[in-house]
Amino acid sequence: MASPTLTIDLDKIEHNARTVTDLCARHGIEVAGVTKAVCGEPQVAMAMLRGGVAGIADSRLESIHRLAAAGVPGHRLLLRLPALSAVDEVVGSVDASLNSELSVLTALSDAARGRGRVHEVILMVDLGDLREGVWPDELVALARAVRDLPGIAIRGVGANLACLGGVVPDEANMNRLVELAEAVEAAIGERLRWISGLNSSGLALLASGRLPGGINHARIGEAILLGRETIHRNPWPGTFQDAFALHAEVLELKRKPSRPVGERSQDAFGHLPAFEDRGERDRALVGIGREDMDLEGLTPHDERLDIVGGTSGYLVVDVTEAAGEIRVGDTLGFTPNYSALVGAMTSGYVGKRLLARISHHRS
Ligand SMILES: *Cc1c(COP(=O)(O)O)cnc(C)c1O
């Protein structure tokens, strides 16, 4: 294996999707499977669909195009707010999008009309996380204005938490979302199909039975891909945490002091890292570096290994506790967290290998 490789176990993703969608279904919640961390990889989307998600959501039009080109069926939702400059592409590529700007919604309506379509939207309200969405007291006015746009159908209202501000979904903010949705329904004189309250941060609230009734839509990525809820990043019961594995080759194996020798200044990336003196250690230079991907967020499969640091071409791993078992030319395995997964998926230097027990090739 010359270049680092990310292995993707599609059966584990399917299993995780089934665990999450079964839980959600018991509470009357429909799940959109979020593929943004895997750049809309069509086989991952197919695994999620086999596992029971109702549709696929992604934040990039490029990923949406990838799904469409591969013939991935089902409803497609754009998660990132559409750019005013891209409304025609949005209307042509997805069934629905999340929105908060009237000028964009007006342009989406015109674009949809131009194509003889109606574009579905979920109006986003900010419940305190301070990312996307109108402030709660502006939601009804926005909904009234959007109701009059002929190319737009309001399918729901939604909120996204635990992203920028790390705000935890709880009974109070979810109740607020349901109340706001009811106010919108009263204002536009229509029932909303979706009240979209949850992402992977909401699973614990859901499982506790304290999620207010009325919330009926979730957009779930990390819990399906990595098997974790995102409040404490605890493993989610009944899911695999190792659907993704990153492997890279050992290029050098030497016993060296644990502290640099000589007067020290900045490292290659402008930092002055601290090195604890642990005496002489066995160090492996592994063939994955910061030019390949951000090296934060990798955990060695072998608990005896310790990541010392990384440069543009190398990851340096202390292998002293496993010395004798590791040779030059071996590959070391790592579990990526969400940001490392994104880094590996978006990297042109990291190979991708899809694994499935049964072959799921499209005919
Ligand atoms: C990324 C994203 C999600 C999925 O979040 P996870 O924590 O991966 O479940 C849901 N909604 C929006 C708007 C997103 O951007």
From TrEMBL:
**Taking every annotated instance into account, which residue ranges of this chain make up the domain Alanine racemase N-terminal?**
8-225
Which domain of life, per UniProt?
Bacteria
Q: Keywords in UniProt for this one?
A: Isomerase, Pyridoxal phosphate
Q: Which GO terms describe its cellular component?
A: cytosol
The coenzyme or cofactor needed here is:
pyridoxal 5'-phosphate
Spell out the coiled coil positions from the record.
none
Database matches in InterPro entries: Ala_racemase, Ala_racemase_N, PLP-binding_barrel
**Pfam families listed in its UniProt record:** Ala_racemase_N
An example of a GO molecular function for this protein is: pyridoxal phosphate binding
Protein name per the record: Alanine racemase N-terminal domain-containing protein
